[in-house]
Amino acid sequence: MSDLLESRLALLDQPAHRALLAQSLHGIERESLRVDPHGDLALTPHPRALGATLTHPTITTDYSESLIELITGTHTDHGALLGELTDIHRFVYSELGDEILWNQSMPAHLPAEADIPIAWFGSSNTGMLKYVYRRGLAYRYGKAMQCIAGIHYNFSFSEALWPVLATPDEAATLSAQDLQSAKYVALIRNFNRVSWLLMYLFGASPALSANFLQGKPHQLRQLDDDTLYLPYATSLRMSDLGYQNKAQAGLKPCYNDLATYVAKLYDAVSQPWPEYEKYGTIRDGEWIQLNTNILQIENEYYSSIRPKRVARRGERPLRALATRGVQYIEVRCMDIDPFSPVGVSESTARFLDAFLLFCALEDSPPFGESGHCQASTNNFLTVVKEGRKPGLMLNQEGTPIPLATWGRDLLERIGACAALLDRVHGGTAHQDIVAAQAIKLDDPAHTPSAKVLATLQDEGLSFHAFTLKMSQQHAQTLRNQPPSAEQEAQFREQAAQSLAEQYALEQKEMGNFDDFVAAYQAGLLGN
Questions:
Q1: Residue 4 included in any domain
Q2: FRET pair for 187, CA 20 to 30 Å: which of 21, 261, 387, 473?
Q3: Where are the alpha helices (DSSP H) in 142-257?
Q4: Residue 1 — very low, low, confident or very high, per pLDDT cuts 50/70/90?
Q5: Are 101 and 202 a contacting pair, CB within 8 Å?
Q6: In the beta sheet, which residues pair with residue 308?
Q7: Is 479 buried (19+), middle (13-18) or exposed (0-12) by CB count in 10 A?
Q8: 155 closest CA partner among 254, 74, 86
Q9: Are 137 and 63 in contact (CB under 8 A)?
Q10: CA–CA dist 120, 61 (Å, integer)
């Protein structure tokens, strides 16, 4: 353990500072496709009884009308966090009829591209902006790629924590906002250095349905007529099957400071890309994408972690970051856990807390010109495709190192952070989940990705049949525990309010959509 990590842990172990750690906030966004009883994509509209996706704070859709997104509030307690996520699932299931939620990151059987429904958010200018953005994604990446689902973990430390960790120079030269942003950016740098470990320990998408690639060339192996896989993969969802296209290839911001990150993304949302210019923005009188730039909006940039600031209605996320700094981080690389009814377990959330605390406290020097930033990216991509390969070597700042050796060293340091969190919250839950990961490094057969593949092979199941079976089991578990009358009344009131808010917005936003888009692109809305 480094001297800096040890000294910072000792500093935060003081009673007054432990109280600051207890104020950390957690939130979860869980994506999931709605499917019919056969596991085929549900082509029905988002159930009206669940509310309006444009204005509902908890139940919305992501890319497709069939891709539901369930969003918790923020909590200091993991039990409350997972409890809310479970309650949302129970209510959703009360309105799904015979449909179920697909409990895997890689999609169910998909129809032809043209038949995958894009999410509809109503006729207001704000709703149309979201719809046109998604039409642009279809042209740029294809609709099937947008049906991949995951878990997003939102996390923030108490704002009062950062001055405790500030160096004398930082305390003398940085405002509170700039200090907080700098510390979150340093956390993100460390996250990028070692996030391969999350993919190894929790990746759960080593296979996919052959239907997903729809005849496109690939380097995957055939397990059966319906299943493609890689023998040592941990997370094909996070591999270069995804958003690794030429337009985004040159972005890869290394997060040395917030200003550079913002500038890099600002350039991407401002610079035209020749291939997208060929499509244009309006075809046959209809908008097909918001612009022809490398990114339509900054959220199009696909990354495993994002610095975030809650934006006001109509405000560009980049403007929110640039003017008010980083408020929290969003971890975006976690696969849906196919063995959990709600796609993520409380123990995984606790591991993420210890992991993120480690990333915040460990020394995080800026990435230089030595290629270490690219090496981190390469480590990540190597692990998602062949992380369980015997004897796999990674690149640790230019030096080859066995994955298992590096992983054990990280678990020791993350374990020290977990011990501090247990002294904050009581019990041993954080240390227990960190300690439980060691067996996965000793024997890859214990990883979720290996368990998925073993089940397919041992039971003779296709990827589709396995996921449908697990999803049906989880659906029954949740349906057997319906929401209480009080909870159901609260959800129904929330749904009705969201419908009223969307209707009001549609009556208010009657202006010209072209002008609305131009104002949004200029970052003028919401001021």
A1: no
A2: 387
A3: 161-165, 168-173, 176-194, 196-202, 210-213, 246-249
A4: confident
A5: no
A6: 328
A7: middle
A8: 74
A9: yes
A10: 9
pLDDT in tens, 345-402: 999 999 999 999 999 999 999 987 655 788 999 999 999 999 999 999 999 989 999 9
Q: Which two tokens stand for residue 55?
A: 């204005």
Question: Rounded CA gap, 473 and 475, in Å?
Answer: 5
Q: Report which residue type is found at 85.
A: L
Helices 78-94/485-508 angle, 10° precision: 80
Identify the DSSP state of 209.
E
In DSSP terms, 328 is beta-bridged to 308
Structure confidence by residue, pLDDT tens digits, 482-491: 999 999 999 9
| Bridge partner residues of 516 (DSSP) | none
Q: How much is the average pLDDT of 421-449?
A: 98
Q: Is residue 172 part of a domain?
A: no
> Rounded to two decimals, what is the model's pTM?
0.96
Its domain, for residue 101, covers 26-163+195-340+453-521
| Separation CA 474–CA 453 (nearest Å) | 19
The CATH number of residue 482's host domain is 3.30.590.20
| Span 163-204, pLDDT tens digits | 999 999 999 999 999 999 999 999 999 999 999 999 999 999
Counted domains in the chain: 1
Domain membership flag for residue 389: no
Q: Is residue 45 part of a domain?
A: yes
